[in-house]
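Query form — protein PIH1 domain-containing protein 1

QUESTION: What is the three-dimensional structure of this chain?
INPUT:
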Amino acid sequence: MTTDSSLLNSELELQQQEELYQQLLLQTMGKMQTENPDSKVIRPQPGMCVKTVSESDKQKVFVNICQSNSVPPPPELSREELVELLQSEDPSGYRVPMSLGEPHTEVDNSSQGCTAYDVVINQEFFQRCQKDPLFQQFVILVSLEGLENKYSLQLSRDWKVLKNRKFLGSVSEQNIRTKSRPVIQELQPQESSAATARRPEFTLFVEPPAGDPEYLIAEIKLPGVPSSRSLVLDVGEDRLVLTARPSLFQLDIFHPFLIDQENSVAQYNKSTEILTVTMPVVSS
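ANSWER: The structure tokens for PIH1 domain-containing protein 1 are given below.
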């Protein structure tokens, strides 16, 4: 499996950037509940503490990777697929839903001041990472990239997992949004010109096939699209909008399900040229 898309890392809030991983629904946290009443409070469990330094000033930085079932799990990925992914041109193509907390000042064992960040991932995925060193290294890399993207940091990849410490500081409650914002955007004319854009072939199906649907999955064929950087994807509560630039494809569809927008994930496989969008169903 060769993938070409970037991180979907998150604290349950939409961010817009140039590349696909910043056009997808990024889940972001760090908003106070008074600013965003549509949220819930979680208290994550300690997991592991990673020590690194800031490249700019060589100051100590600690990353507390925590665990909570309130954060959705990432898509299934075998060890073999992860090895191939790490050897690909875009090793960040496997997105791990995560909550990135605000920086807080702590004191290390040498009584020196330092900065710590709390990163929360799904509990079951964390346990898998504990059992497999390759997955553990990967989730640390993803966490560092997520913090760098959010806080404009540059962190050293020469990290160390502390053996006798699962958390630096004290575990704090975090607010996670439970109600999404409208995310359908008006596309610019040059991106959505019906005169040149084609409607791609796509398939919608639900999982499980029988009983109450848990996920709505869209598989969209995008022949000729070389990279996820050419894609702009918006997922609404009952709508999906996709544009492949420059004016290659455009898809705008409604569906009969209410979707959990912030927990939706997408991945573009450049070998098959198929974009897969997995959307949790709130209700039918």
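ADDITIONAL NOTE: The chain has five helices and 16 strands.
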